[in-house]
Write a structure and sequence with these properties.
The structure holds 2 protein chains of 2 kinds. Chain A is of the alpha/beta class. Chain A is built from 5 helices and 7 strands, in the order αβββαβαβαββα. Chain B has 2 domains: 94 residues, Cytochrome C biogenesis protein (Helicase, Ruva Protein, domain 3, Orthogonal Bundle), CATH 1.10.8; 52 residues. Chain B is built from 6 helices and no strands. The chains are: A alpha/beta, B mainly alpha.
């Protein structure tokens, strides 16, 4: 029996230990979004503040923007509104994608646009309004096509309408520098007229 | 009498509960095959928001939406693979319990196979080496040693007799 064979259990144990140890620091909620590096899915949804107006993916071309999935029902989304508003003041274009919670008709709930508009207006007046516009995704169709699993989630979309970055969770002063680097790169690209 | 009332009320409440649960599954299908496909898909698709729940088991909004979409696609006559591809295009490979065969996932199949082969080789070698060094082998070595010793003695005595 050769001597190196005795080391196999030790190596196997160390390998397993390293694998499990690294698992301690991984977030099971984070999955790569498959839409990154793909074009924004086609959509035609109502503007939340002005429902007569239909917004499509073509209306958002020409300038990079953050697409922020949020809802008044989501505490983390409400917590980031203040910081996002300060980003808007710095000139960052932020588009809201309103995540409408399903209504359960069994409990007598039904979708009521005026109520929602009032709730949103109240929330934005209270926390600050970072959004140039809010897209109302009543049936979560664009949210489904984007592979969104919850709120808040944010996509960074370039001037040509291609999704370049995705993050789950709130945007705050700690993680903004990383996101800002991506955003500023896209701003630079759009000024240079680069088509990636 | 009062306890009879209470238990009667309890039974009524329980019956009402079971009705509420049944409400969720009131879906109509064109055929038994479609219904079976829907049940299979909702069991095989994984909820992207939850920890290890399929979409049939989960009440997360995303799972509800995925069930609804699965139902629509099945009703449109889409096949099992069509629906899985549709979901993967949106929620990634995570959404289906069976992982795809890729360069990055090949170890899922290779590692167990290598382990079995490796253990087989080690076991086979051990079995073979214990054959050659086992009790029989000891006898053989003893016999060879005896023969060698005898040869030496013979050589020595032959030399002596020549003197």
């Amino acid at each position: 029996m050769r001597k190196w064979l005795f080391f196999i259990p030790l190596v196997a144990f160390l390998g397993l230990a390293v694998f499990l140890f690294s698992g301690l620091f991984s977030d099971p909620h984070l999955h790569e979004n498959v839409k990154v590096e793909q074009a924004m899915p086609a959509f035609a949804l109502a503007d939340l503040e002005n429902p007569a107006k239909t917004v499509t993916e073509k209306d958002l071309l020409g300038q990079p923007y953050l697409l922020n999935v949020w809802g008044v029902w989501c505490p983390t989304c409400n917590a980031e509104l203040g910081f996002l508003t300060s980003l808007r003041a710095q000139g960052v274009k932020i588009v809201g994608l309103y995540y409408n919670q399903p209504t359960d008709s069994a409990f007598g709930e039904q979708f009521d646009l005026p109520t929602l508009q009032r709730d949103v207006a109240r929330k934005l007046a209270e926390q600050g309004n970072p959004y140039q516009l809010n897209i109302l995704d009543k049936d979560r169709s664009l949210i489904f096509d984007l592979g969104v699993t919850g709120a808040p989630e944010t996509f960074v979309v370039d001037a040509q309408g291609k999704i370049r970055y995705h993050m789950v969770g709130d945007i705050n002063p700690n993680n903004w520098p990383q996101l800002e680097a991506v955003y500023q790169q896209l701003v630079k690209e759009s000024h240079a007229g680069v088509t990636p | 009498m009062k306890s009879l009332h209470t238990s009667g009320l309890l039974v009524a409440l329980l019956l009402w509960c079971s009705n509420v649960v049944a409400l969720e599954d009131e879906l109509t299908f064109a055929s038994k095959d479609q219904e079976a496909l829907y049940r299979q898909l909702t069991a095989e698709l994984r909820c992207p928001k939850c920890q290890n729940q399929n979409i049939a088991d989960s009440h997360a909004v995303v799972a509800v939406d995925m069930r609804k979409k699965t139902y629509q696609l099945v009703q449109q006559g889409k096949t099992h693979d069509d629906v899985v591809t549709y979901m993967k295009q949106r929620y990634g490979d995570f959404v289906y319990y069976q992982p795809p065969l890729r360069a990055s996932t090949i170890w899922l199949w290779l590692l167990p196979a290598l382990l079995v082969v490796g253990l087989g080789v080690v076991g086979w070698r051990r079995a073979r080496s214990s054959q050659t060094t086992g009790p029989n082998a000891a006898v053989t070595t003893q016999q060879t040693a005896d023969a060698e010793l005898q040869a030496l003695i013979d050589a020595a005595t032959r030399g002596k007799s020549r003197d």
